[in-house]
Request: fold
Amino acid sequence: MGRYYTVTFSAVAVTAVQDLFEIVAPANAAAFITLHEIRLIQTSDNAAADSEMLRVQIKRGTSGSTSGSGGTAPTPAIVQAGDPAATFTAEANNTTQATGGTITVMWEGGYNVLGEYVWGPSIPPDKKPRFSKGERCLVSLPVAPADSLTMSGTVVIEEG
Reply:
């Protein structure tokens, strides 16, 4: 069993297509990372008239892909006290998306912004996407929202 970490962003104005999360497996480790859960909310549009559907994609970027830019580099949080710091790297809200190499859409879905987006809890562990040496796990918005949304999000990553 691996070690679990969370990566979050909070109350960010989202106005453009972007990689909400970019998690990169360590290039020099034999271990892999597994995406276990994604949660997204927005807190600025709360009336029925503000309702819109957002598409969300989970993508795999090969080691030949290039990181996006324009976001932040949050520090992964340890879930279990005493675990070491994560060896993967994380970025959030890159408004220039990752490019190059081979970037493959592994899963696509969507949600109404008046509710919470939750991916992963009901998926068996052996069916969740794993990423190895230098691969990128990307959680992306392929289409910009209709108007600025104040969004927050969390991913749960297993390293091991």
